[in-house]
Amino acid sequence: MTTRTRILTGITTTGTPHLGNYAGAIRPAIVASRDSNADSFYFLADYHALIKCDDPLRIQRSRLEIAATWLAGGLDVDRVTFYRQSDIPEIPELTWLLTCVAAKGLLNRAHAYKASVDKNVETGEDPDAGITMGLYSYPVLMAADILMFNAHKVPVGRDQIQHVEMARDIGQRFNHLFGQGKEFFTMPEALIEESVATLPGLDGRKMSKSYDNTIPLFSSAKDMKDAISRIVTDSRAPGEAKDPDNSHLFTLFQAFATPAQADEFRSELLQGLGWGEAKNRLFQLLDNELGESRERYQQLIERPADLEDILQHGAKKARAVATPFLQELREAVGLRSFVAQTQVAATTKKKAAKAARFVSFREDDSFRFRLLAADGEQLLLSRNFADGKTAGQVTKQLQAGQPLDVRSEDLSFSVWLEGECVADSPAFADSAARDTAIDALRIALTPIQE
Ligand code: TRP
Q1: Looking only at Cα atoms, what is the longest distance across the chain?
Q2: Residue with the nearest Cα to atom 10 of ligand 1?
Q3: Under CATH, what is the fold of the domain 5-198+303-333?
Q4: What DSSP designation does 331 have?
């Protein structure tokens, strides 16, 4: 059996996916998940979203939209494990275990945190102004996401490479401290898809919400058309030759076209196709490519209960991995059940109590005791002691956990304390019965550890 490559990535739920997200991350991830060699874990990083956003409605809306986008885009949830981070309580728990081994100095070096500090310093603020522990610990939460599922490959943008490296660092430290030779965590590797398109936005800069230059993905055909009409072009009139290689409209077209379609569009532009018409062609292409998915998206958004079910199912799948693994990790750090231990003690005690008991009695002027096995059979009969106190001390000493001095003689045995014989067994039927009785005696006299 070959082990499949576990691919894991999270999507922070603070916005609505746009065309750039789709081409750059969503589409390639869905394609990758179809590889029979891939065991994909994709999740909504909604705990991470809380670090960046304190608007509950936006968080909620974004989770819904991102879930619907991935499903509408063709993600097969029977094939992959698709879940919300916040449905996996093991994640914050693991985050804490990792927080306790993560070096503060490591987190001091995180780009996102450092950038915030630098900005504060620049503007003369307190270095930590406005910085939450959430932002500071962001890489530890992300390490928990990755390590919990022992991901081999983590597809991320360049800005996240450092976080994956930190996950390695933290995981290694945990392995070293608690693994006792066992590697709990697999060392993950960041996967940067060089070939994946970074789409230009309306103004030609990278398509990004922060530049406000995005083309919406699934909202409506009209929204998409409106955005396309705002793509910035040069001022060449219809009939003038256009330069496809310096047109981000062409770049956008190319990202969704077959090579043949792209070639055709290129020659049309060279032959003087007007920009208005060119925008129509781009809209037609995108609408063909995405129209069906858009419909599926709208249907999914209208049935949030179905989406909820799908994600709950995903959470179940993820927790089938996370719950037992976290249990192992808890054990490793010493968070172990008392019950398991006291149960051992309690059963031993019970068994021992049931297995044997001392019975003391008086005989003429002396004091003696018997040790009876569970079934009432006599294991030992003591010698005669001058007083009850001495007899009591002997029974106590026999149970004190010292090595027992048992001496066999033919079909019986005797027990000695400090060079003196204190008790004898009866005669047994054969030496096997005698040895069984000696074993029973040893067990009966083993002190109970608590
Ligand atoms: N921090 C990632 C981002 O902003 C999202 C994310 C959270 C993630 N947890 C992850 C990505 C685990 C990969 C693996 O893009």
Answers
A1: 131
A2: 10
A3: Rossmann fold (3.40.50)
A4: H
Question: Residue 48 CA: which ligand 1 atom is closest?
Answer: 7
- For ligand 1, what atom is nearest to the CA of residue 138? 1
Domain boundaries, the chain: 5-198+303-333, 218-296, 339-444
Domains 5-198+303-333 and 218-296 fall in the same CATH topology = no
Task: Report pLDDT for 378.
Answer: 86
Give residues with Cβ within 8 angstroms of 367, minimum separation 6. Answer: 360, 361, 384, 385, 386, 387, 388, 390, 391
Amino acid 71 reads: L
Residue 437: other Cβ atoms inside 10 A: 21
Tokens of 410: 């033919």
Quote the tokens at residue 276.
Answer: 């208005």
* Single-letter residue type at 398: L
Rounded Cα gap, residues 199 and 24, in angstroms: 7
pLDDT digits (tens, 9 = 90+) for 244-277: 999 999 999 999 999 999 999 999 999 999 999 9
The fold for domain 218-296 equals Tyrosyl-Transfer RNA Synthetase (1.10.240)
CA of residue 163 to ligand 1 center, whole Å: 8
269: CA distance to ligand 1 center in Å?
A: 40
Integer Cα distance of 245 and 408 in angstroms: 100
pLDDT at residue 375 tops 80: no
Report pTM.
0.75
Tell me how many degrees the CA angle 317-322-328 measures, rounded to the nearest 5: 145
Give dist(CA 230, CA 232) in Å, integer: 6
Beta 412-417 vs 420-424: how paired, if at all? Answer: antiparallel
Q: How far is the CA of 384 from the centre of ligand 1 (A)?
A: 79
Give the residue among 57, 42, 44, 55 at the shortest CA–CA distance from 9: 42
Q: What is the tens place of the pLDDT at every residue in 343-367?
A: 555 555 555 555 678 888 988 889 9
Residue type, 42: Y
The residue whose CA is least distant from atom 13 of ligand 1 is: 9
Q: Which helix (H) or strand (E) holds 7?
A: strand 5-12
Amino acid at 244: P
How far apart CA 202 and CA 209 sit, in angstroms, is 11
Task: State yes or no: pLDDT of 449 exceeds 50.
Answer: no
Look up the CATH number of domain 339-444: 2.30.29.80
Question: What region does 228 belong to: left with phi over 0, alpha with psi -120 to 50, or beta?
Answer: alpha
